[in-house]
Amino acid sequence: RVAVAGNFAPVLERLAPGFEQGSGHTLRPSSGSTGRLYAQIVQGAPFDLFLAADAARPAQLESRGLVVPGTRTTYALGRLALWSPAADDVDALLARLQAQPPPRLAIANPRLAPYGAAARAWLVNEGHWAALGPGAVRGENIAQAFHFVASGNAELGLVALPQLRLFHEQTPGIAWTVPATLHPPIEQQAVLLRDSEAARALLGWLLTDTTQAQLRALGYDSP
Amino acid sequence: MITAGDLEALRLTLMLAAASTAVLLLLGTPLAWWLARTQRRGKFVVEALVALPLVLPPTVLGFYLLLLLGAKGPLGGLLSSLGLRPLAFTFGGLVIGSVVYSLPFVVQPIQDAFVRVGPRPLEVAATLGAGPLDRFFTVALPLARPGLLTGAVLGFAHTLGEFGVVLMIGGNIPGETRVASIAIYDHVEALDYGGAHGLSLLLLGLSFTLLVAVYGLNRRVRVMRA
Amino acid sequence: MITAGDLEALRLTLMLAAASTAVLLLLGTPLAWWLARTQRRGKFVVEALVALPLVLPPTVLGFYLLLLLGAKGPLGGLLSSLGLRPLAFTFGGLVIGSVVYSLPFVVQPIQDAFVRVGPRPLEVAATLGAGPLDRFFTVALPLARPGLLTGAVLGFAHTLGEFGVVLMIGGNIPGETRVASIAIYDHVEALDYGGAHGLSLLLLGLSFTLLVAVYGLNRRVRVMRA
Amino acid sequence: MSLVVELRQHLEAFELDAAFQAPARGVTALFGPSGAGKTRVLRGVAGLDRDVSGRVHLGDQHWLDEGVFVSPHHRSLGYVFQEASLFEHLDVAGNIDYGLRRRRAGRERRDELVELLGLGSLLSRRAETLSGGERRRVAIARALAPAPDLLLMDEPLAGLDPARRAEVLPYIESLSRTLAIPVLLVSHQLDEVARLADHLVLMDHGRVRAQGPLDAVLADLDGPLAAQADASAVLRGVVRGIDPRWDLAEVDCGGVTLLLPATRLTEGQELRLRIAARDVSIVRERPRDSSILNIFPVTVVNRRGAGAQVTLELALDDGATLLARVTARSAEELMLEHGARVHAQVKSVAVLP
Amino acid sequence: MSLVVELRQHLEAFELDAAFQAPARGVTALFGPSGAGKTRVLRGVAGLDRDVSGRVHLGDQHWLDEGVFVSPHHRSLGYVFQEASLFEHLDVAGNIDYGLRRRRAGRERRDELVELLGLGSLLSRRAETLSGGERRRVAIARALAPAPDLLLMDEPLAGLDPARRAEVLPYIESLSRTLAIPVLLVSHQLDEVARLADHLVLMDHGRVRAQGPLDAVLADLDGPLAAQADASAVLRGVVRGIDPRWDLAEVDCGGVTLLLPATRLTEGQELRLRIAARDVSIVRERPRDSSILNIFPVTVVNRRGAGAQVTLELALDDGATLLARVTARSAEELMLEHGARVHAQVKSVAVLP
Ligand SMILES: Nc1ncnc2c1ncn2[C@@H]1O[C@H](COP(=O)(O)OP(=O)(O)OP(=O)(O)O)[C@@H](O)[C@H]1O
Ligand SMILES: Nc1ncnc2c1ncn2[C@@H]1O[C@H](COP(=O)(O)OP(=O)(O)OP(=O)(O)O)[C@@H](O)[C@H]1O
Ligand SMILES: [Mg+2]
Ligand SMILES: [Mg+2]
Fold first, then answer.
1. Is A touching D (3+ C-beta pairs, cut-off 8 A)?
2. Beta partners for E271?
3. What is the pLDDT of residues D40-72, one digit of tens each?
4. What's the CATH number for E232-352?
5. Cα distance between residue A94 and residue A83, in whole Å
6. How far apart are CA A152 and CA A146, in angstroms?
7. Do chains C and A touch (3 or more CB pairs under 8 A)?
8. D147, E144, E199, E288 — which has fewest CB within 10 A?
């Protein structure tokens, strides 16, 4: 039983057959927002492994003594992409950030989602925050930011690169990957909650080179 | 513990609930009236359709509303071709979303109340020279008051707590579409349990006062006339 | 497009909705009866309390239920000290959550219906030798049928779409607490729009059929007796 | 404006097919057993059922006809329903005044009715706290207050005590006369009907069995009422004078003169007297020293009835008709055959104006 | 089991304070103007209001007393409400049978009632499709079917046609006699009451104004009814013989013999005759050849009344009393003073058994 952050769930689903065939274990993922999964784990939810979207919640669980000690590891680093379905080239895309009136920009809620925090940091650095930030539409998580853009309600958005890669059929227009150096790292950490053989196997498998290569292909950086 | 942003969210919530309840009553009452009075065969299909928004999770409903309202959606396309701003992420959009989701809670009790009024008082009013609209306002509505109250309370309270739809089409913009329910949710997600407790208590207290006032007043009115 | 997991979720949803509706009617009807008949001063405070769960966002309500029912919560603690499993993350827990959240939708319409029945039929029944329970079952309940139906439909449909509470205290465990609403939500969140559309349509179709059947049957019953 | 009614309605287990006319002035009584279709007729005239076909003409207003259906609120009528059917959300005053604004009627008649029906102290009471008779009085006031062009009354006086009834009945009649509006009245009290109605429509099983001027229908020994104990004759008369000493009025009924208690009568007043057959007795010779003041020579013109009682039709010398119900034995012993000359006795106190 | 009633209830604008007794057999009529508190009394006896104090004893069953309150469903009674109040969710049969199971009563009386009230063809109809009179008949059947220990009837016959009424009234009376259960009946038709009731309770403004055996209350010239046109005497008699030729019954009323139409009478039957004052006329000499068969010598013992009419109390030779209403003029002319010996005439057909 794996509690997996919403943004990583489709990725895990894509990769799972490989793990299940290799190990003989079956995966039972429960996806959700990292904050909720945290609250549930504190209340004794029956999960074995927690694949969080950030580093903070696993650390807090560890400090509360709810994890198998020493198992907290970063399993992937997220990458941020600026995306507009309507743009034709990168310059036009970046130019839109300064357009008047300011465009509707979708981001994940900086307070809740590491992708949101990263997006805000980048916008602040680039000097766009004052103009765009207060009016930016905030998804509860990075998936919602994606919906906002995909449905045409927001003109551009800062979304997760893996989303674009995974669903490239549904993502017309142009995306520009924000260089990893321009925002704080989006560390996705995992902790073992119960010391089961299957869970250890999964965690181990996630960190193998083959898996990591697959993740890189989908738009993650390896830790 | 309660920030200025929270209070702002609370203000917005009350405005949204008030606006939605008003729209709900304005739309729901005639619809309920029609459903209560019509003899048409197909009536129960409409009844089922009205109840249908209920069975979809609010977030999913919000998602579909988002698709509908978006630039590529039928409604959004229409609006932008008319040179209007899309409704998503605006207060107006929130009202639409809340109305769609709360409609069944408003229509059903009012419809029941209209049915129970029965034809006789309306017949009497007609023989006294009251036309259909007159009858509706001076006889049907007052006699259906308990149902209207129930509809209004359920609609109002539900909009206060309404969340998924608003989350989806509101975009959580502080001061514009960030309502109290989302603010509390944010606090929980951000593990700021203190903030969540505070705002929840405030919302509960406020609603409780409001509800007690409404029910108490309703009782008073009845007693005064008895 | 619709996976085996989705069907599993659908089955669970229907079971949950059925169980919750049953519990809701069992709890809500006597409560509504008491509220409709009592002359107590404090009655409207209870009315307000019943409506209160509505104003909290479901996820937040779920969060508080989680705190209450979870292993560390007072109720959960009690249960586990009795050697029982805590209710969180179980089907039973889901039922409790749904019941708390849907109670006002069930109680209010039924209460209105009981009020409208009025004292006379009960007085007649009493003079014919029917005791209080007898009167309740053979007179009050049948005469309040429209309200009961409304309560049941609202409760059932709301549980189908109910989401936040279930997500919180259920934990989205496939085959155990992963209901259809959550499954759709997951599809949406995972950007699997096709899966979301499919399951939504299935849920809508199923509910529509069910609702049409219920309303149509209700109509039939009325017509047959007319 | 006389009223022409022709109604057809098909309900399961009941078929309405009734046609009659009601004169412009005065009361037309609808009479018939329970389930005869009286209420159906009133509803049809009021336009409350849409599945009714036929004709309803009030003077030159065509309310119902081939392809014509005027909505009830455009038919200027007052309807006292069989059940009081008050508005439960309004107080008594609210109920009574509801029609006033809508029919643009003044308040004079309303205040008159409140007075007549003794509603003054109830005006601010809610409908649900009223007694049965109180509700009915409010319903009457509500229907009459706006002074409509037609009155439909479904047993309006059921549940009222005799004293009140004796006050309300003449009021309704005088309303009908002064405003020249037809009144359709359903009642099961034939004495009441007879005292008040000009025109009678007898219904049964959804059909009209007999109709016509009250006198004719009541006196028709072949008609449906003959078998009942209610056959009566109606005489029209004028008050010629009032004897203040005995408080007796002398009423000239064209040829014969009746002495009646003068209560509520004034000189010159026209009135109609119903004389029930059971109140008329026969003597061959005029008795002396009888307390019965009204004794007239008559000729027996008809005799009907089997069993213990027979009904006699008696011709007064001026041609008017009286009915008398006597035992078969008396009829035999007094030889009350066609052409017999006898005296009819009518107690003054039995004849109420 | 006689019924003892003593009820106090305080409502805004109305104060009930009524006490009376009703005999175990026969009908006790509650009579009084609208708003007098008649319905309040019936509700109090049935136990439908909890804010009532006083006493209700039916034989040795104490339903209400200091500290005692028996719930309505434990009081074995049948209540015909002023409004029919049928169960709208049941058909006619369901309504009638509702009490049967609960009071553990057989179906004989039920079938009898369905027959008597003509409900056979309506059994599967829903309440809302019935006519006013049909609803009322169902309500009567529903209350009577379980054969309770006490019957409370609030204007049960309002809205019924005279023919039906003439059938139902005797049934209720015979029910009361054969089962020995008291019947409390509210009615505004004094003739109906008088024909049926043994005991009369006159109410006004929440209080009992007069009560007692019917004869006494009706004949009491000082009582509240004397002013009304309804004063009557009641004679008790036995059918001595029936003359088949004329279909006339000879009824011996202790000393005087009355001839009446024999319809529904059998030899040996005891009965009670109400003779209304307005149906009695006076002659000084016995007339010859009169259609009036019942003429008795009487002595005037009392004279009341002002205005055009006076009421005379007449002593029959056996001591029984008759009332006669005559004009003041006749009273003067015939010198109808205390002690005058005259003849009273009573039309046979005016006396209905
Ligand atoms: N909605 C209905 N459906 C079927 N039958 C009906 C309906 N309404 C009335 N009836 C029947 O039609 C007949 C006539 O009804 P109506 O009410 O006109 O009688 P009525 O003459 O007014 O009798 P009453 O004096 O008892 O009020 C009755 O037998 C009644 O049962
Ligand atoms: N719930 C109530 N609150 C206040 N007053 C009431 C209430 N119920 C009845 N009354 C008043 O009490 C008085 C007696 O009522 P009740 O119903 O006993 O009259 P009733 O004798 O049955 O008259 P009717 O012949 O008109 O039915 C009436 O004046 C009525 O207005
Ligand atoms: Mg009728
Ligand atoms: Mg009454």
1. no
2. E237
3. 999 999 999 989 999 999 988 999 998 899 999
4. 2.40.50.100
5. 10
6. 10
7. yes
8. E288
Q: CB–CB of D293/D259 below 8 Å? A: yes
Averaged pLDDT in 10-residue chunks for chain E of 353 residues = 90 90 88 90 93 91 91 92 90 91 83 88 89 91 90 88 79 82 86 75 90 74 57 79 83 81 77 78 83 85 75 82 83 84 76 52
The CATH homologous superfamily for domain C4-55+91-225 is MetI-like (1.10.3720.10)
Chain E residue numbers with beta carbons less than 8 Å from the beta carbon of D121 are 13
Q: How far is B2 from chain A (nearest CA, A)?
A: 16
Beta strands in chain D (DSSP E): 3-11, 14-22, 26-31, 53-58, 61-65, 68-69, 77-80, 150-154, 182-186, 197-204, 207-213, 232-243, 248-253, 256-261, 270-276, 280-283, 294-304, 309-316, 321-327, 341-346
Low-confidence ranges of chain A (pLDDT < 70): 87, 133, 135, 168-171
Helix, strand, coil distribution of chain D in percent, nearest 5: 25, 40, 35
DSSP A190: E
Instruction: Map out the domains of chain D as residue ranges.
Output: 3-218, 232-352
Let me know: does E154 contact E36? Beta carbons within 8 Å. no
Probe residue for ligand 1, chosen from E131, E138, E161 as the CB with the greatest number of ligand atoms within 8 Å: E131
Token pair 């784990």 is found at: A41
Indicate which atom in ligand 2 lies nearest the CA of residue E203.
Answer: 21
Does residue B82 have a pLDDT over 80?
Answer: no
The pTM score is: 0.83
Residues of D in contact with B225 (CB under 8 A): 91, 126
C145 Cβ under 8 Å from any chain E Cβ:
yes
Q: Is the ipTM of this complex over 0.85?
A: no
In this prediction, residue C85 carries a pLDDT of 65
Distance CA B21, CA E51 (A): 41
Over its C-alpha atoms, chain A yields an Rg (Å, rounded) of: 18
E89 to C143: CB separation less than 8 angstroms, yes or no: yes
Residue D189, min C-alpha distance to chain E (Å): 7
- Rounded to an integer, what distance in angstroms lies between the CA atom of residue C163 and that of residue C185? 9
Tell me, yes or no, if C49 comes closer than 8 A to chain B by beta carbon. yes
- pLDDT of amino acid D306: 63
- One-letter amino acid of B70: G
The two structure tokens encoding residue B8: 């702002």
| DSSP of B186-198 | HHHHTT-HHHHHH
Structure tokens at B51: 């109840």
The rounded distance, in Å, linking the Cα atoms of C76 and E158 is 66
CA of residue E297 relative to chain centroid, distance: 29
> How far is the C-alpha of A147 from the C-alpha of A153, rounded, in Å?
8
Find, among B4, B3, B14, the residue nearest to B179 by Cα: B14
**Spatial CA neighbour of D140 closest among D163, D126, D166, D160:** D160
Say how many Å lie between the first and final Cα of chain D, rounded.
27
CATH superfamily of D3-218: P-loop containing nucleotide triphosphate hydrolases (3.40.50.300)
* D176 Cα: distance to centroid of ligand 1 (angstroms): 27
Buried b (16+ CB within 10 A) or exposed e, E43-80: bbbbbbeeebebbbbbeeeebbeeeeeeebbebbbbbb
Amino acid B226: pLDDT: 35
Q: Do the Cβ atoms of D202 and D31 come closer than 8 Å?
A: yes
Q: What is the mean pLDDT of residues D216-238?
A: 66
How high is the pLDDT of residue E174? 79
Pocket test for ligand 2, best of E14, E48, E79, E80 (most atoms within 8 A of CB): E14
What residues does ligand 2 touch, defined as CB less than 6 Å away?
Answer: D 129-134, 159; E 11-14, 32, 34-40, 82
